[in-house]
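Proteins fold reproducibly. Look at a sample protein:
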Amino acid sequence: MFCYKARKTPGSLVSGKVEASNPDLAASRIWDMGYVPVEIIPETRKKECLRARFFKNTVTFPGIGLKAQVIDMTGHLADILDSGVPMARALCFVEDQAHSSGMREVVKSIREAVVKGSAFSDAVAASPLFSPVYISLIRAGESSGCLKEALRHLAEHMEHEKNMMARVRASLVYPLIVLCTSCLTFAVLLIWVIPRVTALTEDMGGHLPWATRFLIAASRSFPVWGSLFLIIFVSAFVVLKRTRGTFRGDHWKFRIPVWGQFIRHAQSSCFAGTLGALLENGVDLMTALRSVSSVMDNAVLREAACRVSQKVGEGMSLHKAISQQNIFPDFLKDMVAVGEETGRLHEVLGQAAVYYEKKVDQMRQGLLAFLEPGLILVMGSAVGFIVLALLMPIFRMNSLIGF
């Protein structure tokens, strides 16, 4: 018995149970019911799934997250198997090298299943930590007798994806630091510095400059509009958190200028690269499409990939199925057409993934080139205005005394 989550229409999510002897048969029965499977988990592994989800969202070793641990495990296993060590003994070595107790338990359960006679792919599929793409590549490697090569290719593919996302996140660190520092500086000036200087300028008497009067008014009303800004910020954060991964929330992201195009290119690179890797390792097209659709981060593209999988299952060519989805870029559609005509679909998809990865890097560098000096200019202008507004009455008083 398998527990599943599936979709029938964009934005709708249903769950239930289906009886089958293996995950592939369960997926086929879910497709026959008219649903697109999103998650399939053995019912007997329900408690382990809950524990794994907690583990998946937690850093379990200083500086090493789940994905990095899975990459290390996969690479180590490939290297050990390449030395001629049997699978069960290789898993023992990998278990000893695990970075955390959580990963050690996962490898131990896989090793015990292999010792009992299960195939390595079935043992991996029993753990909810591994994605459908990971499982499909392992099964393809076992079927072709090239498990070591499949593991090494899988580790390289996951490492490449992780590095690309790390570059994107690292690009946002400096602008966020500048923005947070600016907000903290303005808050300190408005709460503590300006009220003390205001008392001094008011004791001097005389007519204050407009900039000083504006600054004093802003400082006195800061508790009101500061609280309002904080409420708006927290509300926006909560809304974004709740809509993250939903069809409506991800659809809204595509409407943001520049950022929407950035997400489209990044997800297109992920789609093309993962699909190409699956096809290159001998996974059939339908299984590859189902695996890719279940691991897409963006809900809109995930739904589009599910519809492509349905159309291909009905006999339509991949190019025609993708062309009917407006969310995919035109260049990707053209590359798929070329790949189908030449019979080199996996190679062409790999080239498309590299192309969109370069586009993502170019857009990332362009955004940084605009954000960094822009934030510094805005912060410098604001601080300069505050300093000028504070010094203008002092200069005016000095000129009056000198006169």
In short: The chain has two domains: 1-58, 172-403.
